[in-house]
Structure prediction request, 275 residues.
Amino acid sequence: MNWTHDPVVVCPTCHGDLLPQDAHLHCVVCDHDWSVRGRTPLLFQAKRVGRRDRVMRRMYDVLSPVHDPITEHVLPHLQGDAPDAVLRRRMVEALDLDSLTVGDDGVAHILEVGVGGGALIPYIAEALPAGVPVCYWGLDLSSGMLRKCRARLPIDGVNVRLVQADAAALPFAENSMARVIHVGALGTFADPEHALFEMSRVARPGSRVVVVDEELDTARSNRLRHRIAFKLLTFNQSTPQAPIELLPYNAENVHSANLSRFFYLLSFDAPRGHA
Ligand SMILES: C[S@@+](CC[C@H](N)C(=O)[O-])C[C@H]1O[C@@H](n2cnc3c(N)ncnc32)[C@H](O)[C@@H]1O
Prediction:
């Protein structure tokens, strides 16, 4: 098996420790065997994935060859806003990586939920403080998107590990992540409130969680073409907007603002006492 054990990664069902055994990761608590494909563990059970998430997984598998070029080259024109690189740097800035510190294991773990083709990772790499060992966990439910991300690796300056799993059942230990970021899918999740709870659960107390997803900036004058493009982009969401009301009740330093014409950026610090 092409997988090195890391105690940060746990069983997504019962949060028990996972031990490499033959071609599997074996959960010492519930006895489930999780398979590993190449270097990527498959830490989800298809039958437990919400119906909406299953549909989105198939959609992203199909979209994976064109997703990143569309985001980089087409979306900025549709939005009539800053280039993708500028928006990505703003997302990274919100993570406050200058204050990144290592955990008990001597590593600062950063999680991207819905890593997709990994377009954000080079921007993270350029902002990491020198001398802090970092492990960047890229989690996604779509194997097609993860293949695209794998093809991007290695990326100078950052150690990236990929995991196929569901945002609703993160296979990471409580309080293990120094930062968590999610870009672009929360509004389509079957249970966005639970996904936010999961991001908060795995984040170290007081550490920053950043969520970026669709919301039309109504303070700007939006032409018909902007409103049509936004409608098409969010065709499967009833109310595309920052879900402040879904955050864990004890989230700290909650801040929400428009990142661009089509996107909000919501940040909060994980509760210092988990519920
Ligand atoms: C719009 S893409 C953004 C990708 C990447 N974050 C970026 O900024 O380019 C959203 C990603 O979320 C993933 N995703 C959707 N639903 C998911 C779920 N329930 N669990 C994990 N990932 C999911 C999709 O497969 C897709 O790769």
User: Anything to note?
Assistant: Residues 53, 56, 60, 71, 114-116, 119-120, 140-142, 145, 166-167, 183-185, 189 surround S-adenosylmethionine (CB under 6 Å).
